[in-house]
Amino acid sequence: MQSKSGRWVGHGIYALLMFTLVGAIYLSGKSINYNWHWDRLWPYVINTEMQDIPAESDGTALIADNGTITIEFDNGDTPQIITQYDNKLISNGDLIFQGDSVAQFNNWRFGPLALGLWMTIKISFVSLFFALLLGLVFGLMRVSNNTVARDLAFTYVEVIRGTPLLIQIFIVYFFIGTVLDLDKFTAGVAALSIFTGAYVVEIIRAGIQAVPVSQMEAARSTGMTYYQAMTYVVLPQAFKRSLPPLAGQFINLIKDSSLVSVIAITDLTKAGREVVSGSFAPFEVWFTVAALYLLLTGSLSWAIQQLEKRLSASD
Amino acid sequence: MTREYTGDDMIVATHIDKFYPNGCHALKDVSVTVKRGEVVAIIGPSGSGKSTLLRTFNQFEEISAGSIMVDGVDMYDKATDINQLRENIGMVFQSFNLFPHKTALENVMLAPLKVAKRPLKEVEAQSTLLMKQVGLSERMNNYPSHLSGGQQQRVAIARALAMTPDLMLFDEPTSALDPEMVGEVLDVIKGLAKVGMTMVIVTHEMGFAKEVADRVVFMEDGALLIDDIPSKIFDAPAHPRLKQFLAKVFNSTWVIKVRI
Q1: Least packed by Cβ within 10 Å: which of A245, A278, B55, B138?
Q2: Has the ipTM of the complex gone over 0.95?
C-alpha cells in the first residue's frame, strides 16, 4: 500500500508531464506558423446566425402599424403574411421579387458537427443493439450441442473477424445493398453490427463457458429446460462476467463507426472533413472531433461501470 | 403433473450398466429399489460409482443398459418428459450450487415461478415458509456469497423442496462443509426423514447413515455389493470388502470430527 504523500507526489509528477506534453503540442503548433481560429468552429457546431425569410413570389410589401408584413402578390395569390421576425430588411411599399429576403429572425440550429455527432450516436447505438442481439444468438449457437449451429456460428465469427471492416462496409453497401435495395444508413448499421457481433459472439461464449457447469445442472435439477436454465441462471452470470470486455468492444464500435463515412453517411468524421474544407481550420476541427468521440466513448464506459457496480451487489 | 401411480416403489432400477465413452465401466449391473417414504443411504469408497448411481435417478447420467422407473414413470420411455419428471425429484449437491446472482429467497422462488409458473404471492409465501423450516428466515435476503457453507446448503435443500418433490437426492451433502456445520445440515435432512420424505443419500457420514437410513447400500468398483438394513451393515458386517471399508473409515482421523 502506497502512502498518501507518495500518491500526491505521483499525481504531481503526472500533472507536470501532462503540462509539458500540452505545452509541447502548443509550441509545435506555433512553430509551424499556424493561426488558430477556434472561433471559426462555433458556427459549425451551433449556428446562431440570423435566418432569412424569403418572399414566395413577386409583389408589393405593406407594413402595418403593429409591424406585420404583408406581401400582396402580382399574380393575385393569397398574400404572404409575416408576423414574427427580429429584423426587417424592407420598407413599406417596396417592390419585392421572388426569393428576396424580406426579414430575418433569430433561430439557432445545429451545425454540421453537431448533426454529425448525432448521426454517430444514432448509428453506434442502433448497431450496438443489433450487435448484442447477433452476438447473443450466435454465442448461444456456439455453445450448443447442435453441430450445424456450432459450425454456422464458427464460420460467421471466422469470416467476419478475418476481413477488414472497410471491405465489409463496401460489400454490404455496394453488393448486398444493391441486391436488397438498402439505404446507406441501413447498410452502415448492418455492416457495423455484423462486424461487432462477431466479436460479441466470442465474448459471450467465453462468458457462458466461465459459468460452472454445475450451475446449469442445479437449474436443470429443478425441472428447468435448457433454455430456461440459460435465461434465468447461466446468461445473467455470463453477462456479468462479459461486461468489461463488452465495454471495450462497444467503445471500438463507436470508433469504427467513423468508417461508414466512406458510404456517404454524414457522421462525425465526414462532417469533420466537410467542415475542414469550409472553415480552413483543420487542426481545430480534428481536435474537436477527437474530443467529441472521447466524450461519447467516455460516457459509454462510465455507464457500463455503473452497471457493473450495480451487478456486483451479489459478490 | 397428474399421475395415477400410487404404487409403493419410488425408484426401481433394474440391471443398469453405464459405460463412459472412454470405455470405463462405471456401473455394473446395478439393481436397486427404493420404496415410497424410505431413506436409502449409499456408501462406499471414492470412485465406487455412488454419485454416478445417484445421478442416474434424475438422468444427469445416462445409462447404457437396463431401465429406471421413477414414481411409476419409465425414465427412458420416448414419451417421458424428463424436465417434468425432474420437477418431482429434488437434488442437493456437494458444492451447494446456489445461483450466486440471486438472493437466498430468490434461489428458492426461481423454479416455482419459472417452471411451475405459479403466482408470485403464493410462491413468496411458500418459499418464506421453507426458509423458516431450514432455519434461515433471518438471512433469506442475503446473497449466497454472504452465507456460510452450512447456510448455503440449507438454502439448497429449501430450493430442492420448493417444487414439492416426492423424491429427494442428496449427493454428499456435507462433504464440502466445515465440521462444525455438518450438524445443522444433517438436522434438516433428519427432519425431512421424519415427515416421510423419500430420500436417497450418498454420504460419508456413517453415523448419520446408521441413524437415519432405513436401508444402506454398499457399492464398490461400480457394483452394488450389499443392500441391507443399517444394523446389519454397521454392527455385523459380513462381507469382507465392507468390513475392510468400514475399518478404514472408522480408523481414519477425519471420522473423529463426525458425530457417530
Answers
A1: B138
A2: no
